[in-house]
Automatic annotation (TrEMBL):
Superkingdom classification of source: Bacteria
Keyword annotations: DNA-binding, Transcription, Transcription regulation
Domain HTH araC/xylS-type: 190-288
Gene Ontology terms, MF aspect: DNA-binding transcription factor activity; sequence-specific DNA binding
Protein name as catalogued: AraC family transcriptional regulator
Pfam family, one: AraC_binding
Amino acid sequence: MFTAYSIEDFVGQKLKHKDFLIHRLENLDYLPPQSIKTPHKHLFYEIYLLKEGSAIHNVDFNTFHIKNNNLFIINEEQVHHLEKNVSQELKGYRILFTKDFINNSLIPSNLLFEIVYLHNIRYQPLISIAEHSELYTYAHLLLSEYNQQTLSLENIKALLFLFLNEVKRNIISDTNDDFIYTNNQIRSYKLFLDLVETNYYKDLSLEDYAKRVNISTRQLSRMIKLISNTTLNTIILNRRLLQSKRLLKHSDLSISEIAYEVGFLEPSYFCKVFKKNNGVTPFQFRKEQNVL
């Protein structure tokens, strides 16, 4: 349905380092269409730091209005695009980096998880920041370092750590949420989410997931409730419904084929659940999306 782009494929050029890129938002015009205004997904994280201007960003059927002094985070594998009427006066930065770039550095993997996953689960990917935020300083330093004739990955990773740590501080200030979890909880929840992503269409029980995460069912239920304030069944259902929406909009599969594809045994039950959660039938949803 969608090609998952690497950074180099995404921007259509060979880079200094395949796992990292930073550039000014003023320079978006030279990028190929798939990297901006057509629905796409990719195998890396993408951060918009908008100093001036405005844009509308669609992420998996949710619309976000980005304005000056906003930071916007795109996770791996999310289907998204900028609206075509994006402001021509954009000023700021866009930072792209892979999970491998983080893993092969001194940046704690938990930091990225807290920023990208936990913030998106509890709130949304849009963060308001101060007009003179340190984030602009770190982004400027990152860009200056990236543009050096000889690229120092150690310096880039050190500055990226400072940038991400400042993002976390802004989240805490913006939401009054300290994200205080143990390393074991975060490690287990990361594994759980990875398992959901690859198995959501299968008929797996709480016991199955708990066994694969190597914790008890009681521990898993408590952890899901603590971090996401929901249940396993709701997480699985939401993931199935999201995939069904993607397929309804971006594929030619029949509604019955989509029902089976995302894990429903009966198309009629899929239609009932879909309407209950979205207010329209799958057929109506597809028709509405095709008009847009």
